[in-house]
Amino acid sequence: MQYRKAMNVATPIRAEKTIGHTVCPHDCPSACALEVDVHADGRIGRVRGAAANSYTAGVICAKVARYSERIYHPGRLLVPQRRTGAKGDGGFQDISWEAALDAIADAFVKAEQAHGSEAVWPYFYAGTMGQVQRDSIERLRHAKRYSGFFGSICTNMAWTGLSMATGALRGPDPREMAKSDCVVIWGTNAVSTQVNVMTHAIKARKERGAKIVVIDIYDNPTVKQADMGLILKPGTDAALACAVMHIAFRDGYADRAYMEKYADDPKGLEAHLKTRGPDWASAITGLPVEDIEAFAKLVGTTPKSYFRLGYGFTRQRNGAVAIHAAASIPTVLGSWKHEGGGAFHSNNDIFRFDKRELMGSAMLDPDIRMLDQSQIGRVLTGDAEALRHRGPVTAMLVQNTNPVNVTPEQRLVKRGFLRNDLFVAVHEHFMTDTAKLADIVLPATMFLEHDDLYRGGGHQHILLGPKVVEPPSTVRSNLFVIEELAKRLGVADQPGFGLGERAHIDQILVHYDIGYDRLKEEKWLDVQPDFDTAHFIDGFGHPDGKFRFKADWTGTPAPNRPPKSMGVQGAYTALPEFPDHVDLIEAADAGHPFRLATSPARSFLNSTFAETPSSVTKEGRPALMLNADDAAALGIVEGDVVRIGNPRGEIRLHATIGGGARRSVVIAEGLWPNDAHLDGEGINVLTGADAVAPYGGAAFHDNRVWLRKE
């Protein structure tokens, strides 16, 4: 407790300081290179982007720039705690690390004895993107044959749809946005969530006169920066893409020679699109015909058009179809040929990491069941299909995620965590909604307090994040917890255990002529493929080198394809052969006339930063954005309390009028802690966990609701 008093109140800053070099660890494609002022008393000061890194370019988001507010927060967890009293009552007592780890190991052994090894479910995600601290939990899972974790909550639909198109998850160098004549930012509120995208897009505008087009579902901060802002009805992106390609064929913008060489069936696509013109798309998207025509002409007459496709595609039930259609536009136009042209979503495929030892891959048993991350509520409440028709989950270790707040079907999730026969250990920084329902809570190091390795899915750098400051003496890293549990569970002699962070980093980088020590000197490694590879000049990633206008929705590999034991998912038989709008969305109906999207807030990152005072102050309170005409029709004014609901549940929010969404579309920016809401329940009460076609996912922006003034 002395640390809390010493380190979590303001102390004088001495003049002497050093600069630490590290990486932002949070769940964001930017993986920003950071410079951190470290003062003589061992405390951090200012955090800023590394100017020498060609992608970060000295710019980071404000919430990370204020990181001292988080690391020295007075509410930070500093000692292990054991629950006292009933679950959810909030009673905890301090215990030692030895007692806490012994209790977890004992609970895991008892769960295995009663129900088999699959009764234990290690549950984790991207609270840190550090390779060692995030993924070491998989090594323990494989060694102990615990239930598997199918990570479906973030990337599946976008990665699947793009893989169907290009056959590889890579694309033109993201820094080429600065060399483009038209940057199309589609499905990402980059000002709030990927600030570096704006760095390079605005550079193109200033230096080249480039136009910035933003396509989204409401008038967010990125739309406000655009030369052309297109606000769609949610889930209608593919209709816009089809109309743009229709116009390209109609008006001569299509590069037929390029398609003949690089695409599978351009003639079939052209025939299919004959009936997918701007009038058809206008009725679906809500966009005026003239806006669709203007956008199509702009990209059709601008060879260097760079399509930056975001993670909004991963939040809707037809997201895979939508990103496949959007990526088809630069293929019809031949934009890939040009520096500053083509389409980019993620560079995931370019990094040659060897994580076999880190994750214990040699110990993986394919017969062990895989449980869907997004369906945790169903798993913990005994749904037979979600459990793969096997036994219950009765013990969990949760690292790097906050499922009671962030996962769909929140009421089911909470009901599951309140089971008296479920043991839960949570390793965390703060007493999150999930930690409040745990039996054991362990305090975790933050990224500045341990070593790790990062990669930038939104760019091309491998970056080292070395420890910059000493952690409190009473907190421990994720790797420490995994190693100590391995000892207590009898698997510490298995491959990959017994190694520190630096040894793991050296092993992960074995395919590169660099290790921890040299990377610490150089700070990052640029592994961007050459132009021909990045732009698919040597052929796309499919075996025949062709871009696929005709998607094989069940036969194409993809980074997040579920294992055979889970199979293809959702309404995959309804997926179209060619790019097309498909009504797989949770469409509004008479009883639920509004569409709800749970979009990111600028000052939060998922549930992270919702504890820092400046972020809370900037965001205000949980609110629901309403179209002004909808509000007037319902007699709702600014600040009124409204109730929204669907068959999953209902919650109350304060109304805010405006925000630029179309009629019958409402936006709840978050993610706020559950107890910040009027009734102690968060927005994910209303989101669904049904698997999305074809390879799974969670459609957070795709919900129908009713709405009334309270």
UniProtKB/TrEMBL annotation:
PANTHER family xrefs: OXIDOREDUCTASE YYAE-RELATED, TRIMETHYLAMINE-N-OXIDE REDUCTASE
Superkingdom field: Bacteria
Pfam families reported in the protein's UniProt record: Molybdop_Fe4S4, Molybdopterin, Molydop_binding
InterPro entries for this protein: Asp_de-COase-like_dom_sf, MoPterin_dinucl-bd_dom, Mopterin_OxRdtase, Mopterin_OxRdtase_4Fe-4S_dom, Prok_Mopterin_Oxidored, YoaE_C
UniProt record similarity statement: Belongs to the prokaryotic molybdopterin-containing oxidoreductase family.
PROSITE patterns for this protein: 4FE4S_MOW_BIS_MGD (PS51669)
Alphabetically ordered keywords of this record: Iron, Iron-sulfur, Metal-binding
Domain 4Fe-4S Mo/W bis-MGD-type residue range list: 17-75
Key word Disulfide bond present: no
Protein name: Dehydrogenase
GO MF term list: iron-sulfur cluster binding; metal ion binding; molybdopterin cofactor binding; oxidoreductase activity
